[in-house]
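Need tokens for this chain, all 343 residues.
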Amino acid sequence: MDKSDVQNLITPFLNSIDTNTIDAAEMFAFKSKNISDSSNQYLNLDYEFYNTNMSKDKVANTLKAIFNIFIKNYINNESKVFQPYDIHNPKHIIDYINLTSLDFTNSTIMSGNSPNLESNNYKVQYLLHKLDNNQKSVQSKNDYKNFKHSLLKLTCNNKSIIVINKVTPIYKPKGLMFLIDGEISTGQVDYTLIEKNIFKLPLFPHILIVEDKCFLIQPDVESIFGFEKYNKKIRDNTLNKLKQELTLTDTDYKLISEFSLKGRNYDKFSTFNENRYNKIKNKDTSTMTLLKEKLRIPVDDSNNVNISNAEEAEKFVLFLCNCILRDIEDEDILYMSEKSKPL
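Here are the structure tokens for all 343 residues:
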């Protein structure tokens, strides 16, 4: 795809911001949830969106900064190339997907039974459908709990452009941080301790959706949509890491592998939690205790898991893939997402 064509998709929105002719500008925090029991072959993720109630002008000016940095660092960067999406494309290539609009009020489309549906397009369009139909307004900072991504949407002349960032929007300062107000060199300076959480955004888009194009700008952002080939890649990489980095017996690995390779269980890896895996790899005491006492997965005296049956293997994979739900540090009850009842 020619870079000038990409620029031409963005320029009308920049002009609309500059001339103050935008119709709407909104920012959302959102999260995905694995729906592995779906009968729809194209769906493995559902979404929940919260409107942050940020002012239209602030969202528009934020998007203007993001667009300008994207133009400078990607469109005007000779090393960057725009090509159709392929999971094997090297990192310097900006992938894009050609989108075709879908009407989810049509029951055959909503169920995934309509002929000639394309999987990746369906998943992107479903997220956009949920954005339009599953919004809530933030009432308190607790509404942001466990939200993993942010989305900014600008509309003008009945057209929209969307920026998605794969980053936890709420940042809680780790340690003492201060706002510096005044001029340091003159000694007229004031330091104000930051005691509240911070809403953060990258200064470039991870995903850009405009007209009939979805640009996948940063690596591994396919996980937001749950693309099938990407999920299988994550599954295979995870199984390799488990074999290479954890102390597992042949039986442990065989049981974990059998569950992971069964049917559409690769879709569970769309929500693979690297932090949980690292805690297990590093034998974090609280995590290993949780596995043993809450999930009833055997753990030996050296803090290695001992998988002895298929049920334990399933719970282990579900834990790694965020399919066992709760705020692990705060709650006492664990829920398996597809069963929605206490373990």
